[in-house]
Description:
By secondary structure, the chain is α/β, with parallel strands linked by helices. It is built from five helices and eleven strands, in the order βαββαβαββββαβββα. Helix content is 23%, strand content 25%. The chain has a nine-stranded mixed beta sheet with strand order 2-1-3-4-11-10-9-6-7, with helices on both faces. It has a two-stranded antiparallel ribbon with strand order 5-8.
Amino acid sequence: MTARIGVVTFPGTLDDRDSLRAVRIAGAEPVSLWHRDKDLKQVDAVVLAGGFSYGDYLRAGAISRFSPVMETIIEQAKAGLPVLGICNGFQILTESHLLPGAMLRNNHLHFICREQKLRVENAETAWTADYEAGQEIQVPLKNMDGRYVADERTLDELEAEGRVAFRYLDMNPNGSLRDIAGITNAAGNVVGLMPHPEHAVEPLIGTGRTDGLGFFTSILKKLVNAS
């Protein structure tokens, strides 16, 4: 039996169907999860998809962090459950303290939507093993509150421990400190990033590139090899 990967839908989530499709294209079984249900339906990994959950009121991800499903995800992520947070999902992970730092309004105060070049900095996480460190990929980026910030001590720790997973190349689209596009926790099972790999998984739609598919094939291989 193939791995089951759940995708959470909150009120205002936009990219859950894209994430479910990406899971299916990678060869895993996609499972829809509803924010009010604590039951994760025995999934092997979870994706927190992009969007504007709860309208980004208070702060992006601040309300979603208290959804019933997050109680279970936080508990199981600390026990090793692989979790990927994309865009709004990344914001939810920082609000949940599963990842350090915070996301603020873009420094230019505008919504941005573009193809974005990234460099893979850590290819040893559950979600990045199909890439190589130093590899350059290009995936869509679309956000308003995408500026990653943290205190200098936290930033130094992320750098020293190899927990910067992705870095922006050519241009910094939102003012993120140290050009950070994505990070991982110390265990490597929780990864968050602002760009959208689920929009770059098949050549006929989106960017016409498949640079984002590696996120989903990486976790599938890890789960299959662990079974």
